[in-house]
Amino acid sequence: MNPFEQMMYVGVIMSIVLSVMILGSLYYNPRLSLTEYPKDIQKVVFPKSIHEKKQTIYFNIAYNAILFGTPVVSTYILHKHEKLLYVDA
Known about the structure:
Transmembrane segments: 7-28, 57-78
Number of strands: 0
Number of helices: 3
Shape: elongated
Protein name: DUF1648 domain-containing protein
Structural class: mainly alpha
Radius of gyration: 18 Å
Order of helices and strands: HHH
Number of domains: 1
Largest sheet: none
Distance between the termini: 14 Å
Helix content: over 70%
Organism: Bacillus wiedmannii
Keywords: Membrane, Transmembrane, Transmembrane helix
Strand content: under 5%
């Protein structure tokens, strides 16, 4: 697999995983993304409950761990080996 194919393969997989996480969180509880809504909607809707704030924090931790953790771990593994494809990491 050449580097371009590898980049496309990994990029598509990460995009699908993160998109499923976002759509799943919107299906589970649309209020988790309340701060991303337009200001007019935010004024009309009740503020997040403590439970919803905790859920938002947990979701953000998982999302950012995948988003930033995957390249960091793969780079670490790559530096431990002489030559390694990203897909193998």
